[in-house]
From TrEMBL:
<feature type="transmembrane region" description="Helical">
    <location>
        <begin position="319"/>
        <end position="345"/>
    </location>
</feature>
<protein>
    <submittedName>
        <fullName>Monovalent cation/H+ antiporter subunit D family protein</fullName>
    </submittedName>
</protein>
<feature type="transmembrane region" description="Helical">
    <location>
        <begin position="201"/>
        <end position="222"/>
    </location>
</feature>
<keyword id="KW-0472">Membrane</keyword>
<dbReference type="InterPro" id="IPR003918">
    <property type="entry name" value="NADH_UbQ_OxRdtase"/>
</dbReference>
<keyword id="KW-1003">Cell membrane</keyword>
<feature type="transmembrane region" description="Helical">
    <location>
        <begin position="405"/>
        <end position="427"/>
    </location>
</feature>
<keyword id="KW-0812">Transmembrane</keyword>
<dbReference type="GO" id="GO:0042773">
    <property type="term" value="P:ATP synthesis coupled electron transport"/>
</dbReference>
<dbReference type="InterPro" id="IPR050586">
    <property type="entry name" value="CPA3_Na-H_Antiporter_D"/>
</dbReference>
<feature type="transmembrane region" description="Helical">
    <location>
        <begin position="160"/>
        <end position="181"/>
    </location>
</feature>
<feature type="transmembrane region" description="Helical">
    <location>
        <begin position="366"/>
        <end position="385"/>
    </location>
</feature>
<feature type="transmembrane region" description="Helical">
    <location>
        <begin position="107"/>
        <end position="125"/>
    </location>
</feature>
<feature type="transmembrane region" description="Helical">
    <location>
        <begin position="57"/>
        <end position="74"/>
    </location>
</feature>
<dbReference type="InterPro" id="IPR001750">
    <property type="entry name" value="ND/Mrp_TM"/>
</dbReference>
<dbReference type="GO" id="GO:0008137">
    <property type="term" value="F:NADH dehydrogenase (ubiquinone) activity"/>
</dbReference>
<feature type="domain" description="NADH:quinone oxidoreductase/Mrp antiporter transmembrane">
    <location>
        <begin position="127"/>
        <end position="408"/>
    </location>
</feature>
Length: 510
């Protein structure tokens, strides 16, 4: 069997096991599979990174059809890194769900494994329509997970989640259909450079980008995220924070490099949108009333730090993309840790409302330390992953040496101050202050609830001390993303079918 045939296995394995867990009534086995399958895909992602680092991009077409015709999967260092990161968050979130007793719900585990299926397929697909399919595979279990308890508040928020994502998915499939109508292809490799000033193709690709940006929670279509994510459980919010938005980041990076050929005409628009998104995400958390709602705005705040790097790819594309990826890895780990840590507090005290909690620093020192560590990381203070994540972003922005650099760096500092104020507000009201009067002194956050968030913060510390290693991985991933010729030739093969010519499309409009 050719080594590339392993790519569909990343999708098939969690899907098959999800069916097994749906039929199996024995909870202990389902709990094991809930963490084992993400762990297997994580190990597979490490193998994929090592293999592609040595041998280059690999690709597989289901049914061995010619390139450009069948359902294509492709793996390079960039997709491998994203696969490893998403599986790490999925594993940790499921670990927390087991500790919190959430997997007692009959279909919790199969739904999360279907979500893992969609994520694995989304970061490995080489076809835009198949990407849409994988997004839907992610969303269908998400609808169930976000409304699983059936409480009135959660169902109302689930409605918001469903409406926005259905609208975004409709827009996405319309964009993909329009792209096929004007180019005759939806294979990503076949669309190389097609959106770099090619009229209708650019419009079609723009529709796809808007739909994906909506799913990423980017301003001005961001408000649904902090309204819906915190209403579900901490385990589900941890899953969503590391999977839904980061799959969107992956595809936006891929489309920007392959389809748009890093067209500089969009740089100003990208900067304007991302700068506003930074400010909104940085300061809006100051008005929220629960810990996880504050964390939701840190998710909104983090996305533009990542995506603004696309506007600097004309100066130092390798460093800009690597900086965006490094910040992505930091953000997934840190926000995941903060969300799960907040969930541990909620599970113990029955509330995450800021005004109802106080004095936890004395009562739960380990939980408090994890929150403080996450807050330091979000702001960019050592010794946590956010330090070098933000340094990388600032240095990549500074490479342009013009007004863009000054504006973006200034807003990064300002938005970081907003995030600091939000986290200080939570710390002051929840962790400082007088001991709570209505809870027995013996009531504390249990170690098994603290462990998942503690593990993620340990990864954050390791990323700080191993920043050189993480940066090297990010650079290699950026190199693989920029090597469009290798990606295209591997995916399409020697005799591709239905590959449009960007130059002919451009000429046909003149």
């Amino acid at each position: 069997m050719a080594v590339d045939a392993i790519l569909p296995v990343f999708v098939a394995l969690p899907l098959i096991v999800s069916a097994v867990t749906a039929l199996n009534p024995w909870k202990p086995l389902n709990d094991v599979l809930a963490v084992l399958i993400p762990a297997v895909n994580l190990a597979g992602g490490i193998w994929l990174y090592n293999y592609t680092s040595e041998h280059g991009t690999i690709a597989h077409v289901i049914g061995l059809y010619q390139g450009g015709v069948g359902i294509s999967f492709a793996g390079d260092e960039f997709s491998a890194v994203m696969l490893v990161a998403t599986m790490m968050v999925a594993l940790t979130a499921n670990w927390f769900a087991i500790a919190a007793g959430e997997t007692a719900a009959r279909f919790y585990t199969p739904l999360t494994l279907v979500l893992v299926t969609g994520v694995s397929g989304a970061v490995l697909t080489a076809d835009l329509f198949n990407f849409f399919v994988m997004i839907e595979v992610m969303l269908l279990p998400s609808y169930g997970l976000i409304a699983m308890t059936g409480s009135r508040y959660r169902l109302v928020s689930a409605r918001m989640f469903v409406i926005v994502n259905l609208a975004a998915s409709t827009l996405l499939v319309m964009g993909v259909g329009y792209l096929y109508a004007v180019t005759g292809a939806v294979n990503i490799a076949a669309l190389e450079g097609i959106a770099a000033g090619n009229g209708p193709a650019t419009v079609a690709a723009g529709i796809v980008v808007i739909a994906i940006a909506t799913k990423a929670g980017v301003f001005p279509v961001h408000t649904w995220l902090p309204r819906s994510y915190p209403s579900t459980s901490a385990a589900v919010m941890g899953l969503f924070s590391g999977l839904h938005t980061k799959v969107a980041v992956y595809m936006l990076f891929r489309l920007w490099v392959v389809l748009f050929d890093m067209d500089p005409r969009w740089n100003t628009l990208i900067i304007v949108v991302m700068v506003i998104s930074m400010l909104v995400g940085g300061f809006a958390g100051l008005a929220e009333t629960t810990i996880r709602r504050v964390m939701a705005y840190q998710m909104v705040n983090g996305m533009p730090f990542i995506l603004v790097m696309l506007a600097f790819t004309n100066d130092e594309p390798r460093y800009a993309l690597a900086a965006g990826l490094m910040y992505t890895l930091h953000h997934m780990v840190t926000v995941g840790a903060l969300v799960l840590n907040s969930g541990a507090i909620e599970e113990t005290y029955g509330t995450g409302t800021i005004s109802k909690l106080s004095g936890l620093a004395r009562r739960d020192p380990i939980t408090s330390a994890i929150f403080a560590a996450g807050a330091f990381s979000i702001v960019g203070l050592p010794p946590f992953s956010g330090t070098f994540g933000k340094i990388a972003v600032v240095l990549a922005a500074a490479a342009a040496g013009d007004w863009r650099s000054w504006l973006v760096i200034a807003v990064i500092v300002l938005a970081s101050c907003g995030a600091l104020l939000s986290m200080m507000r939570v710390w002051k009201q929840v962790f400082w202050g007088r001991p709570m009067q209505h809870y027995p002194e013996a009531l504390n956050v249990r170690p098994r609830l603290i462990a998942p968030s503690g593990a993620l913060m340990a990864v954050s510390v390791a990323m700080f001390f191993g920043a050189g290693f993480i940066w090297a991985i990010s650079l290699e991933a950026a190199d693989s993303l920029l090597d469009v010729a290798s990606y295209t030739s591997t995916v399409l093969g020697d005799d591709p079918v239905g590959v449009p010519d960007a130059a002919e499309l451009q000429g046909g409009q003149n």
